[in-house]
Q: What sequence folds into this?
């Protein structure tokens, strides 16, 4: 797909705006595990995912992580260009969860275009609203949902993303997603195994009772 096909608002931009945006975007690749943006680093720019998977997470002073949202094909990451959002103080780290191809759009170029283009400004505000909705949903999950339900929901999401019930993921990685300790995840997975929901082996979690897991997620 061409760069233009990744922007729903592209037809509503002027030819000059289209030209400026497409010429400024740089094609990049990232290997799995690579950090693309550090919350305390200088403004990276906007990341437009062509293929792959990115993870945005918060890192506490104690070194504990929690996933805020993920980015997939066609998704645009604004918070890696937080310097163009003056009132925003959002310390996110962006990591490639899979080998990823993306375009990097300079923040200063995008900001100038957004200031002169109402369609682009509206599109950007919609994305920002969606991201904050995801943050609020996460806060609700942390505050009101028990860990067993959050873990069940996460495993079901992974199963859908990877299109397999045999997930190659460590307990440490799950803990990083959920913002808890590895030991807590291990205890909960062992409980799931005793209930016949999963089967544990080294570096792998096999979901053996998807219906039971879905029931737990909905309770």
A:
């Amino acid at each position: 797909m061409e760069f233009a096909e990744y922007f729903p608002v592209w037809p509503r931009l002027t030819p000059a705006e289209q030209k400026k945006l497409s010429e400024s975007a740089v094609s990049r690749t990232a290997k799995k595990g690579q950090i693309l943006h550090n919350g305390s680093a200088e403004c990276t720019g906007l990341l437009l995912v062509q293929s792959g998977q990115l993870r945005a997470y918060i890192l506490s002073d104690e070194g504990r992580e929690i996933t805020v949202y993920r980015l997939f094909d066609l998704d645009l990451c604004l918070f890696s260009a937080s310097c163009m959002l003056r009132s925003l103080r959002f310390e996110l780290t962006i990591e490639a969860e899979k080998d990823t191809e993306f375009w990097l759009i300079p923040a200063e170029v995008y900001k100038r275009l957004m200031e002169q283009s109402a369609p682009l400004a509206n599109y950007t505000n919609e994305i920002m609203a969606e991201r904050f909705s995801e943050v609020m949903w996460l806060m609700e999950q942390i505050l009101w949902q028990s860990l067993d339900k959050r873990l069940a929901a996460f495993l079901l999401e992974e199963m859908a993303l990877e299109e397999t019930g045999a997930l190659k993921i460590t307990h440490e990685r799950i803990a990083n997603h959920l913002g808890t300790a590895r030991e807590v995840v291990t205890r909960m997975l062992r409980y799931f195994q005793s209930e016949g929901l999963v089967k544990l082996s080294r570096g792998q979690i096999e979901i053996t009772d998807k219906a039971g897991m879905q029931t737990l997620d909905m309770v």
User: Anything to note?
Assistant: The first helix runs from residue 15 to 24. DSSP finds seven helices and eleven strands in the chain.
